Amino acid sequence: MKRVLRDRLAEWCLAALADPAADASIDALAAFALRTAPNGVAAGLSAEQRRILEDSGLFERAEEGLRLRSDFAADLEALRWRAARFAEALSRCRSECGVAPAGEPRVPWSLCAAAALFNARLFFEVHELLEDRWREAEGDLKTFLQGLVQVAVGLHHHANGNLRGAIALLEEGNAKLAGFGREAHGVELATFRAALAEISHRLRSPRPPADLEIPRWIASQTPAIRR
Questions:
Q1: In angstroms, rounded to a whole number, what is the distance separating the alpha carbons of residues 181 and 159?
Q2: Three state DSSP letters for 127-183
């Protein structure tokens, strides 16, 4: 997927996770993905959905509806995949994490939301969400967040066919998480780290797998996060 398209879609996803007022963009994207015909044109969108998509600059009018801009046409199936994953992650985040707290430390909510993204295989979005928290953090928390970011980037590299980058980032990230025991900051690590080590081992084999069995990121919740 072209970087400009990927980045814009990630912005929509993260905005919706943090604020229900931004849900409309994900709803419009999901409607487009659902209604897209084999010729790439989506008909039957509401006026508001058309407005949101047209205003993004990523879509253009077609005779019977709306389509992805011609220079992004090759990314249509990737966009449809991400739209479904966004909806999955958003639903899980709403039920398990709630809305991002205002005026409070955002790390607990960000880790909860990152788990929803990770479990939907939205690894690039995990990186985008946690990078700011990592830059703001200090000490052990900074190391912990960097480890999680590196794991997500490693899996993103694998999805894009970059085997060397995947192995390097997965192993660097897992090594950073090794110093935090079985659980840290509400994130279960024992099973998670073991699964990551197995992935690295398989990727180093003579015939590395094209698809991976991704471990679940389990983040414990508190009422303070869910409210």
A1: 28
A2: HHHHHHHHHHCCHHHHHHHHHHHHHHHHHHHHHCCCHHHHHHHHHHHHHHHHHHCCE
Lowest mean pLDDT among 60-64, 65-69, 118-122, 145-149: 60-64
**Domain 101-227 annotated CATH 1.10.3450.10:** yes
Q: List the chain domain ranges.
A: 1-96, 101-227
Structure tokens at 53: 């998509």
Residues comprising the chain, all counted = 227
7 pLDDT higher than 50: yes
Check: CB of residue 108 under 8 Å from CB of residue 185: yes
pTM: predicted TM-score of the whole model, two decimal places? 0.92
Q: Rounded distance, CA 162 to CA 154, Å?
A: 9
Q: How far apart are the first and last CA of the chain?
A: 36
